[in-house]
Amino acid sequence: MHSLLRALRRLVLAGCGLSLAAAAAAADTLVLRSAQLQTLAAAPGAVPAAAVTVALPHDWQAADLRAAWYRMSFDAPAVPPGTLLAAYIPRACANVELHLNGQLLHRAGRMVEPLTRGCYHPQLVTLPASLLRPEGNRLELRLVGEPLPRVAARQRAGGLSPVVIGPQEALAARQASRLFWNVTLAQIIAATLVMTGALVLAIAWVRRIDYLGWFGVLAIGWAALSARIWWREAPLATTTLELLTCSAFVPLAACAVLFVLRYGGVRSRRVDVLLWAQCLILPAALAALGPQRLFVGAVACYAVLAVELAAAIGFFLWRAWRRRRSDFRGMGVIFALAALTVAAEVAIQDGRVALPEVHLIHFAIPLMFCALAIRLVQAFARALSTAEAARGQLEQRVREISAQIERNFAHLAEARVEQVAEKERKRIAADLHDDLGAKLLTIVHTSTDERISTLAREALEEMRLSVRGIAGKPMQLADALADWRAETVSRLGEAGIEVEWSGDEPDEPRTLPARTYVQTTRILREATSNLIKHSGASRAGVSCRIGEDFQLVIRDNGRGIPMELDGKLDRGHGMASMKARAKQMQGQCLIESGPGYGTVIRLTLPL
Amino acid sequence: MSSVTRILLLEDLPEIRTWLKALAEQVFPGAVITEAARVHDARQQISASRFDLALIDLGLPDGSGVEVVEVLREQQPEAQSVVVTIHDDDDHLFPALQAGAFGYLLKEQSREQLGEQLRRISQGEPPLSPSIARRVIQYFTAQAKNHVREQQPLMPGVTLTDRENEVLLWVAKGFTLPEIGVQLNLSRHTIADYVKQIYRKLNVSSRAEAALEAQRLGLFRR
């Protein structure tokens, strides 16, 4: 542990080009590693203790230390003329006042409570050349602060680091670097954490994901707590501030534990109650211990919190190992790093490890937060895209089903319309039969004029065909042919005309639209009537052919159509109407006739 | 036919009833003709007196002539029902034939044609059009299928013989009865007998079917 930390520290320091060894080796730089310490008693009017020699860094362990003088003497280092010299104090906690040869040169802020607390801030004081003597310069530092037992973290216990005297430029660089690593970086990270936390909180709030909520609170809380590093002017007594700082870790730890547990899917009321009760109990215990034992209490408190967090992480990892291996690996690495950092910090606070120059915990933990946040957001994004894909599928399915329903509905509506239309057709047909039919029938059977009764009969037949056309059911071609054959053959037979019907039957079932059936029936009936009435034929032949289209040929051996009738085209033979009907069906009706040749009627219809 | 002496005439339109009566008198001289204009009247006449022949219109103000055909077949099985209608389609005619009508006349035919047809029917030569033949074929095919499906033995007397089937098929293809006679080398009388048998079996089978149906409903109700 020790060596690992040292290695880490060396790495960090090397990274920023800062090396104590290298600095010490420089000839123009002087490091003061011991001082005459004169402590000032806490109680007013007490006799100041006698001066003792102490090695630097010097930490305030004695419980009654509040202020002390550190006196050092040094010879000005040999530097090229015109070089400005400065004193660099990497750590002076909580605040320092610098005197050179009896002259007050620098004070970092308030020296009485509420103190200006610059425990994390390195100090750099330019030494005026006029005050400097070549030899035997007196450097006096007055330090105020709180001793280790009265603070909550070793980092903020009173103490002084070695003082470095050297060229101002070089030291300024070292101060800037240390300031960056200890303070500025903490600020940057805090700002980042606030934004990350806010983002996570927003997601948690919108999506109602509790573990994200705890994580967001944790990140923001940690960022707020990092104010202890850079906020020097807090208007509170140092011991009060220390108690508050330590107490603030308790709810933060509770958030962390809750996050880990919730993320692992654990939800226990008892654990929740205990965690929140602890937020009251631990600070109360710290307050009860009193400021003199604050550090002991704080270390114990950190240990308790660390153990709780470790337990939660252990439990989570155990569950993840059993349920979600992928989670185990990712979260395992992050949690292991967090546990290491916390352990290192606990070790530092326990005094097992020397106080490092750069505080690992200040950015290791936030870094871990960021890693966690990235992981969480990644997991969330994955879940979101999965959900979106699922929703997309669902929408697709809904669209399909709606389309299907619409189709079904359209079918139903169509069927319904069909049904209604069918019913209406039947009604119309029945009305026609009952009303018009009956009247025509009466004419057929009561008229004394044969011509009128024939006309009425034809009208009746027409009406029936029309009704059939309205009824609109398609007809099998074979059935239509049978009907035509039966009617034509029996009519011609009754008229004493020998008839020969020839033709193919359709090789596959084919249907004729009702209209086509009706129109063809009319044409055939008309042709048959003409044959019987006008041709004087003794023989007739009907042939039908079914191919690409339907062809019906009616021929007779009669006298044909007389020339004078032919000229007038329609001669009461209904030939014009036959042609017109064929045309309506996109077909044609050709009539060939010559005296002595008989008549040939060719009807061609598309199928 | 000389044996036709009592005729029932059911027709709601007075003019048509008048000329149908004239037609009947001409075909069957000396016959007693009872007129009715409604189903209700016809039922009363049937229970009151006996008839040899009934001319029945289908569309009547208080019901269908098919009912009268049924009643007559039940109460006076020896009487011949002839449907006289303006509807030439099988949708109208087939139920009447199933109910026991022995033939049909289409009203718009000329008086001579009607007279000839009526005479033939009364002499046992009922007409049979291709569309009616097709319906009859369909009917018997469906019957046979039902019996196979329900594993019931076919009732004797309600299946068509091969010859009857053959005649039906020829008619369905549009051949006239005389043509079929020539084709099968059978006399005009024999062909007419087949047609009569077909009508009779259609009626018997329909009744059997109706009885079965009633029995089935009764079983279910119980």
Keywords for this structure?
heterodimer, A: alpha+beta, six-stranded antiparallel sheet, five-stranded mixed sheet, 15 helices, 57% helix, 17% strand, rod-shaped, B: 222 residues, alpha/beta, Rossmann fold, Arc Repressor Mutant, subunit A, 2 domains, two-stranded antiparallel ribbon, 9 helices, 7 strands, 59% helix, 13% strand
Describe this structure in words.
The complex is a heterodimer of chains A (607) and B (222). With 607 residues, chain A is α+β, with helices and mostly antiparallel strands. Chain A has four domains: 30-177, Galactose-binding domain-like (Jelly Rolls, Sandwich); 181-386; 387-472; 473-606, Histidine kinase-like ATPase, C-terminal domain (Heat Shock Protein 90, 2-Layer Sandwich). Chain A is 57% helix and 17% strand. Chain A has 15 helices and 20 strands. In chain A, the strands form five sheets. Chain A has a six-stranded antiparallel β-sheet with strand order 3-2-5-11-8-9, with no helix packed on it. A five-stranded mixed β-sheet of chain A has the order 15-17-18-20-19, with helices on one face. A four-stranded antiparallel β-sheet of chain A has the order 1-13-6-10, with helices on one face. In chain A, helix 9 (325-350) packs antiparallel against helix 10. Chain A is rod-shaped, with a radius of gyration of 56 Å. Residues 10-25 of chain A have low confidence and may be disordered. Chain B is of the alpha/beta class and 222 residues long. Chain B has two domains: 6-122, Response regulator (Rossmann fold); 130-221, Arc Repressor Mutant, subunit A. Chain B contains nine helices and seven strands. In chain B, helix 1 crosses helix 5 (111-122) and helix 8 crosses helix 9. The model of chain B has no long low-confidence stretch (mean pLDDT 84). At the A-B interface, helix 10, helix 11 and helix 12 of A face helix 1 and helix 6 of B.
